[in-house]
Amino acid sequence: QVQLVESGGGLVQAGGPLRLSCTASVGTFSSCGVGWFRQAPGKERASVAAITWNGGTTSYADSVKGRFTISRDNSKNTVYLQMNSLKPEDTAVYYCAVDLSRRWSGRLRDKSSDYNYWGQGTQVTVYS
């Protein structure tokens, strides 16, 4: 059974950092692109960042460019989201996702429908 486990969320003051981790239970994770999404109360789930299987290419939502960095350590089956200069509007549940049917793809994907496995989410709350 495939499991994605996010961690690292919490309560942080505006301007502060947090680092989220997403660790998978299957080795094929390291050969697949991964996306981070977030969903704020009353809003639709939205893409935050994506990374190709080897970390060679990344993409970001305009709202987080220059503040967030996605990276991965395939030896640990883990993808990270380093979040700096956090703002109250970054408050949301953050999810990582992977499509294990697409391996070694150089294409970045930023739609929820592109992914077939999701973590349970981790809450990030930024207060001013």
The total count of helices amounts to: 0
Form type? globular
Structural class by secondary-structure content: mainly beta
The radius of gyration computed from the alpha-carbon positions, rounded to a whole number of angstroms, is: 13 Å
> Low-confidence parts lasting 5 or more residues at pLDDT below 50?
none
Mean pLDDT: 96
* Biggest sheet statistics: 7 strands, mixed
Tell me the distance between the termini: 40 Å
Number of strands: 11
Fraction of residues in helices? under 10%
Q: In percent terms, what proportion of residues is strand?
A: 35-45%
Which sequence of SSEs, written as H and E, runs from N to C?
EEEEEEEEEEE
What keywords describe this structure?
single chain; 128 residues; mainly beta; seven-stranded mixed sheet; four-stranded antiparallel sheet; globular
Structure, described:
- By secondary structure, this protein is mainly β.
- It has no helices and eleven strands.
- It has strands at residues 4-7, 10-13, 18-24, 34-39, 46-51, 58-60, 68-73, 78-83, 92-98, 117-118, 122-127.
- The strands form two sheets. Strands 2, 4, 5, 6, 9, 10 and 11 form a seven-stranded mixed beta sheet that branches. Strands 1-3-8-7 form a four-stranded antiparallel beta sheet, with no helix packed on it.
- A hairpin with a 6-residue loop joins strand 5 and strand 6 (58-60).
- The mean pLDDT is 96.
